[in-house]
Amino acid sequence: MTPADDPGDRPDGDQHENLDISPMFVRPGGVTEIPKFSLPDKQTLPDTAYQVVHDEAMLDGNARLNLATFVSTWMDDHARRIYLESADKNMIDKDEYPATAAIEERCWRILADLWHAPDPKSAVGTSTIGSSEACMLGGLALKRAWQHRRRAAGQSTERPNVVMSSAVQVCWEKFCNYFEVEARYVPISEDHPVLDGHRLAEYVDENTIGVIAILGVTYTGMYEPVTQISAALDDIERDTGLDVAIHVDGASGAMVAPFAQPDLVWDFTLPRVHSINTSGHKYGLVYPGVGWVVWRDKAALPDDLVFTVSYLGGDMPTFALNFSRPGAQVLMQYYLFLRLGREGFTAVQRASLDVAQYLADGIAELPAFELFNHPTDIPVFAWKLRAGYTDNWDLYHLSDMLRESGWLVPAYPMPDDLTDVTVQRIVVRNGLSMDLAGVLLGHIRDAVDHLDQLTGPIPDSRRGESFHH
Length: 469
Prior knowledge:
Elements: E1 18-20, E2 33-35, H1 46-57, H2 77-85, H3 98-114, E3 124-128, H4 131-152, E4 161-165, H5 170-178, E5 182-186, E6 208-214, H6 226-240, E7 246-249, H7 257-260, E8 273-279, E9 291-295, E10 307-311, E11 314-318, H8 328-364, E12 369-371, E13 380-385, H9 395-404, E14 411-413, E15 422-427, H10 434-452
Parallel strand pairs: 4-5, 4-6, 6-7, 7-8
Antiparallel strand pairs: 1-2, 3-9, 8-9, 10-11, 12-13, 13-15, 14-15
Helix pairs in contact: 2-8, 3-8, 8-10, 9-10
């Protein structure tokens, strides 16, 4: 980010340098205005400061109506109580908070068991701030293991690469940029809308540190078939001798598939799957931010990536990009594991899928639209404007109209090789009830009816870049 050159360039478009305090909140001797972009010279009464922050935050949208984000926007009152009670806990300080540290380990061992690690007691894992950090750690482990193998064979460790779909989430682009790994993108197409092993041999070579399989593609919610990717890598090993590992980016699907599609084979059941990450704050149902990454066994995580540090009176192993970070979300994750169990998680995820399928069916009935995919994997789906339906409006205009009703439903172009296809996407999360979904469908129908009455095209249609949420 770069600083704004002048007030008119600021993100909020606000050209005023100060915040005026409402006379109702001013106390005798208190300040009547506060600078926005510099630290105030004097103290502000807590009630006044609270009211300023509260009123500013009111301008945000309603989080429950944000159907763009995968991140949880609702938790029950017991979880909120845990949040408040543990807001002061620093997850990295395992010596001071040993109970929280023990609960963190229980959580990733639960995930190792859920994802069929050969021996959950021998698995290795950690919590993270979110899936982005978890992906970085999974990628770093792949890179370091590849480097060790190459050095042991007396071979060069220059020019490592990682193979993934062109529909990969932006955190993998960051990983490749930050850690100097060549990104090799297998383009998706109408015939191959996800990475499925097709043409994989054209991208894998002796410098490939691993292949990323996405369980729930950001653009559409579709699963990439890990079994097919693994089988394609088996063929490559048979033909070339290259043994390439898989990291499963299960940011969303790793907390849906075990409950909604329990017979799907995608996890540590496949020997090529060395590591899996997920977002506790997505379909793990926790407020942001917490993620998890688990390696199938200690051999999959090189020892030299793990630091033993002396911190506040104790020695502890750590493998993380962040150091100090909140412990509250880890405790909330454990609360949900206890509160829901397999039965509860199954009920919640299937209920979200039911709502997503109801919405998808309702949108498919409208003559303006054609589904890009049906929500049979995670409760996410996308649709496009039917070819030849209208030249007067597009999905960006529909998105704008829905925003007027409070709904955030993004429109965006698909990635490379499908950039001429614009879609709109809905993410159904816990908290979006069937009743709310019915209201949304009504708003979509009303918006389409209004747009269809146009006698000419709307000028200056907004056409965004690829959506990376």
